[in-house]
Design a protein that fits this description.
Dihydrodipicolinate Reductase, domain 2; 2 domains; binds NADP nicotinamide-adenine-dinucleotide phosphate; globular; alpha/beta; Rossmann fold; six-stranded mixed beta sheet; seven-stranded mixed beta sheet
Length: 359
């Protein structure tokens, strides 16, 4: 049996889902993979729970329940105050260790880099470290002991597929994708004739958006995903090089949230006009990330209903790879690209791959 110590940064929605999945899969990993993950440290913003023998299932469930109820790890019975993640790696790291980053901060970078320097492995759902300076991306991804499938499309194997194309020396001419479930939901609703403002309100009600929906509508989350794809292609770009076309005009971008929501209906007529113009050309609106000729851009496009992107409905993600091997019809991946279980599943799969399991 291969015993793998795990250090988990982040005890939010995805972190807790990851722990649940690992506990559920314990018998399967043992029987099928001869693999036993031991969670030796679990950290949030202010604290950590550390047990070098591995935290038991009961303790992990209790900690997860306490976090879901709003507690800080430092306040749980086994927790202590600690905000230095590199120190946790130093103390709890062991040979063969895997670090999982399910936070949304660049504060994990020193700890991830330390882990890799020590020869450990790391899996992340956190886009922030990979979309900061190129040099950080190079150090993390260049280590070959670092996986980041969940950062784009959650568990849909977008990164692994791209790396497979590159391994086979394929020439990637363009990548086009719908990389935001929230914006997919809005585009589908616009196409059905619903007003933009009502769709944003409904997306907020369903929990699809961040508390301030401008985080999603501004396109930066999609831009980060586009940058990760571009850098995976080997392009050397910074986030400022990605052309971002926000759905929110500048005069509404800086308003207090309540004022912004009150003025949202002002945008309805312009979106309805865009839909009508697109329909007249046999097209639909999609918020598209496009990588072509060394440039990355994200924004609303009218796309033909004859394409996979045009046929997409609801909040699925889709990525189309146009390559030498796939010249006429692109290689297309589609599936649920958000949701905590899907995000955790992508990290879980990465951890099993990093553990050297033959699957
Ligand atoms: N939710 C999704 O559908 C989805 C899909 C794909 C990818 N992702 C990515 O997965 C990551 C986690 O998402 P989430 O929904 O679980 O977010 P979340 O609920 O906000 O949880 C984030 C966790 O990170 C912790 N954290 C923040 N700063 C930290 C620091 N400096 N040191 C240690 N821990 C820190 C937070 O600690 P506290 O609990 O103390 O605040 C919290 O436990 C994000 O990067 C997100 O973009 C999410």
């Amino acid at each position: 049996m291969k015993r793998i110590p795990l250090i988990i940064f982040g005890a939010g929605k995805v972190g807790r889902a990851l722990i649940r999945q690992l506990l559920e899969a314990t018998p399967l990993h043992a029987s099928r993979d001869e693999l036993a993950f031991r969670i030796v440290a679990w950290c949030d913003r202010t604290g950590a729970v550390v047990d070098e023998k591995g935290l038991g299932a009961e303790a992990l469930r209790a900690i997860g329940d306490a976090k879901a109820a709003g507690a800080a790890l430092a306040e749980t019975p086994l927790g202590y105050r600690q905000d230095d993640l590199a120190a946790i790696v130093d103390v709890a790291g062991k040979d063969g260790c895997i670090v999982a980053d399910v936070t949304a901060t660049d504060a994990t970078v020193p700890a991830l880099e330390l882990a890799l320097r020590r020869g450990y492995r790391a899996a992340t759902a956190n886009k922030v470290p990979l979309t900061g300076p190129q040099a950080v991306f190079d150090r993390l991804v260049g280590s070959r002991r670092f996986r980041y499938e969940s950062t784009v499309g959650s568990a849909v194997p977008v990164i692994e597929t791209l790396r497979g194309l590159l391994r086979a020396a394929d020439r990637v001419d363009a990548i086009r994708g719908a990389l935001s479930g929230t914006l997919g939901f809005i585009c589908t609703g616009l196409q059905a004739g619903q007003p933009f403002s009502a769709l944003v309100t409904e997306a907020m009600r369903r929990g699809y958006t961040e508390p301030d929906p401008r985080t999603d509508l501004g396109g930066m989350d999609v831009a980060r995903k586009a940058l990760i794809l571009a850098r995976t292609l080997g392009w050397r770009l910074e986030i400022g090089d990605v052309a971002v076309n926000s759905l929110i005009p500048t005069e509404l971008a800086a308003l207090p949230p309540a004022d912004f929501l009150a003025r949202l209906p002002e945008l309805d007529a312009a979106f309805a006009a865009q839909v009508t113009a697109a329909v007249g050309e046999g097209k639909v609106l999609r918020y598209v990330a496009e990588l072509r000729d060394g440039r990355a851009a994200v924004g609303m496009q009218a796309v033909s209903i004859e394409t996979a992107l045009g046929r997409l409905r609801g909040n699925d993600n889709l990525v189309a790879y146009h390559t030498r091997t796939y010249p006429d019809e692109p290689l297309v991946l589609q599936g649920r690209g958000a949701g905590v279980d899907a995000a955790a599943a992508g990290v879980h799969a990465d951890m099993v791959a990093l553990a050297g399991c033959g699957l």
